[in-house]
Known about the structure:
The chain has two domains: 229 residues, Metal-dependent hydrolases (TIM Barrel); 72 residues, Immunoglobulin-like, CATH 2.60.40. The protein is α+β, with helices and mostly antiparallel strands. It is built from seven helices and 17 strands. A hairpin with a 5-residue loop joins strand 15 and strand 16. The C terminus is likely disordered.
Amino acid sequence: MTLRDPAFTAAGRFWRGNLHTHSTRSDGVLAPEEVCRRYRDEGYDFLALTDHFVGHYDYPIVDTVPMRTNSFTTILGAELHSGAMANGELWHILAVGLPPDFAPSNSPSFLPVAGQETGPQIAARAVAAGAFVAIAHPQWSGLTAQDARSITAAHAVEIYNHGCATGCDRPDGFALADLLLTEGRALTMIATDDAHFSEPDHFGGWVMVKSQANEPEALLTALKAGHFYSTQGPELRDVRIEDDHLVVECSAAASIIAIGWGTGAKAVHGHSLTRGAVPLERLNNSPWVRAAVIDAAGKRAWSNPIWTGAKAANPRVV
Length: 318
């Protein structure tokens, strides 16, 4: 039996992009034109400028169409805010691919107000409008498991946020993403910058999207289909399950790890590994398996989960 991550079977090539960025249209320090120029000149193929969608900033969905070139494109988007999480703070929902006339919520500032949409409601409305939607920076936001379960319309979880890594050492969303996967949610995982350019929060985490064209609609279709992986630098070239092993082909790595349900995980280690076959016995017959790759400098790459169709066993204490 061979099961392959669809990112490596889809037609096309990989395009490098960042899905979470801010400008002077909200709380970033660079104008939209300069943000786009920097990403373009750093070798990115596409960018989503996602300024904060609140009344204080006049609910911006920034028109970045004029910043496109024949080798660099942009996707319209915003970071949506509406309703309170369990901790009483406002939701942060990343929406990439919004129409320019997406209706504002009643969110005058970053404080919840009575009668506004809930987080789950605005996420569902963004999906209905055609956006790729992700639960933003769960660790930084202080999301509870119940909060995460309530966003039933999301496509993805932001599992690495470079701005949260550099600014507050709360960068990840793996625990909540793995919990939702274990509960049967078919979610994918994105790495982003959340760049404001007021600190070293840029060019640290991105997605590699497999598409036949570097065009907004093609990229959105690929994102929604899970045809991508996330990285801080290492390249993934194939991720597949062959019989009882997770096989990963990648750029030179020090560790290749298979991760599954509960405590299930197993790694192989070495020097300049470009292929690893990780035995899956320790994954407790997990119904999903994902890969992580770590290079000699500590930079990581992450696949989306492969669904095996297995029925998970009880976790073992080892």
